[in-house]
Amino acid sequence: MEDAQVADLIEELADRGLTIATAESLTGGGLVARLVDVPGASRVVRGGVCTYAVDTKTSVLGVSPERLARVGPVDQQVAIQMAKGVRSLFGASIGVSTTGVAGPGAADGFPAGTIHIACAYPAGTTHRLIHVEGDRALVRAGAIDAALRLVRDVLDFAGVQAED
């Protein structure tokens, strides 16, 4: 996503009276950094957490330890629970999460480039499974762009407004 598009996203969140928080694994804080690169992001960005270690997904975000033990962190429901958890943790209108395999090799039985992103908002949740080809840096950058596009789509199609 281009810089101008990220700035437009921040502006629209502000115009709608919405806030956002990030829960990151494979992106390691890159998503929240991308948001706060925009001047004025403090109007909408509540914060972000990097739960890179599996156990921190539970201790910080409330992800089910049973689910993590059963399926590992590369999972749709884990991504959704991360997004819900960060939304609650920061009291944000929108929570967005990234989890997956950055590479260079496979992990937890999934090839590098397997990414789950999720968005939690007042009316529900949205998830996407994507696959990004390339080295570790390209995979992580692709995950950040996909997460930003997911937030954009939630704003465009879910009609998210500030809660009364």
TrEMBL record:
Domain named CinA C-terminal: residues: 7-154
Pfam families noted in UniProt: CinA
Leader peptide range in chain numbering: none
Superkingdom of the organism of origin: Bacteria
Residues spanning the membrane: none
Family annotation (InterPro entries): CinA-like_C, CinA_C
Protein name per the record: Nicotinamide-nucleotide amidohydrolase family protein
Record Gene3D superfamilies: CinA-like (3.90.950.20)
Organism (species): Schaalia meyeri
